[in-house]
Design brief:
Layout: H1 2-22, E1 25-27, H2 30-35, H3 38-75, H4 81-135, E2 139-141, H5 157-167
Parallel strand pairs: 1-2
Helix pairs in contact: 3-4, 4-5
Amino acid sequence: MRNVTAALCLGLLSSLPLAAQAAEVALLDWRTALMESNAAQRSMGDLESRIGGQQQEAESLGQELSQLQQRLQQEGDSMAESERQALVQEFQQKGSRFEQLRGEIMQAQQQAEQQFLQEAEPKLQQAVDQVITRHSVEVLVEPQGVLHSEVDLPDLTSEVTEILNTLY
């Protein structure tokens, strides 16, 4: 009798992991899936070609501003007042242009990102739906949302990226 009870308990215990595995849980980093897609790379390349000149100008101005600031700090007290005022004025003008460029670049980046996300959202949903169906996923979580897991959860991010690449 003891052997039969032990066998039944062992049988019940061994079936528990199978029940836990039936509720398939997987990870998806949808941001990474999108950003690694060919469409995102093309979108970033297009943006770079549109604002590349502005970025170079901003970098150059940033270096010039740093040099002007350093010069004013090191030599400002020993300069003639007119020379110092000219440097301060140049610093302010270049600083204004730098801030203007920075704002234009940020605005262009935000607009490009928003446009890409609007276009990509339906395709991302389609790719996620395909992966969920293919793997019989019942629960899909973001990697940042998992606090603890006893097992390694399947990461479907690269598969979603592959499907996204076929949809464009």
